[in-house]
């Protein structure tokens, strides 16, 4: 077996463990899940977790870090796609809602198990969240300054908009009546109303 095949197999095993951790943490919570639960879901021996990850907490950290970095990248891509605050907000909210609906299980873990992270890992994740919060607030402030949004408190408007997406992961289910895209469209309408968009 070549070194690249070994790396490929190891990467696949790490990915299986991360996916299994998401399932376990979503079903039982971080503290209610054991490493045996995770490896059982992944179809691996209990020892496999320690070959690829230092601890159960590191699995949560990897899941959380990846999710937050992906969200930040989506925000930044939406902001870079247009100079118009209205178009930016439309794209951000649609992407944010659709992503949280499609990945609701992982998003639920990422947003509701933060307290289980080590202080060092919490600090890193909170810093990424701070950047996301700042990006949203500044977007609304730019819209107000440009006269296309009418909102007296961009900071609270940003909190409200981000909370919509985060909470979506708590209640959304695949078998529900609305598709992620339908929710995305509805959330865009809500976002435009919250910021007082002038159409």
UniProtKB/TrEMBL annotation:
Keyword entries, A-Z: DNA-binding
DNA-binding region: 34-53
Protein biosynthesis found in the keyword field: no
UniProt key word DNA-binding: yes
HTH tetR-type domain boundaries: 11-71
PANTHER family: HTH-TYPE TRANSCRIPTIONAL REGULATOR RUTR, HTH-TYPE TRANSCRIPTIONAL REPRESSOR BDCR
Name of the protein described by the UniProt record: TetR family transcriptional regulator
Organism expressing this protein natively: Nocardia tengchongensis
């Amino acid at each position: 077996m070549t070194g690249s095949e070994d790396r490929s197999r190891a990467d696949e095993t790490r990915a299986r463990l991360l996916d299994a951790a998401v399932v376990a943490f979503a079903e039982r919570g971080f503290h209610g899940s054991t490493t045996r639960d995770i490896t059982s879901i992944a179809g691996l021996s209990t020892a496999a977790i320690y070959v690829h990850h230092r601890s159960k907490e590191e699995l949560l950290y990897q899941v959380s870090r990846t999710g937050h970095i992906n969200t930040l990248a989506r925000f930044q891509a939406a902001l870079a796609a247009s100079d118009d605050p209205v178009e930016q907000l439309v794209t951000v909210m649609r992407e944010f809602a659709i992503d949280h609906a499609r990945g609701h299980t992982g998003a639920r873990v990422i947003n509701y198990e933060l307290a289980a992270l080590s202080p060092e890992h919490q600090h890193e994740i909170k810093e990424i969240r701070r950047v996301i919060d700042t990006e949203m607030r500044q977007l609304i402030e730019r819209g107000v300054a440009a006269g296309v949004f009418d909102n007296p408190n961009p900071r609270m408007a940003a909190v409200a908009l981000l909370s919509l997406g985060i909470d979506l992961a708590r209640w959304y289910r695949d078998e529900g009546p609305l598709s992620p895209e339908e929710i995305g469209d509805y959330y865009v309408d809500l976002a435009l109303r919250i910021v007082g968009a002038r159409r």
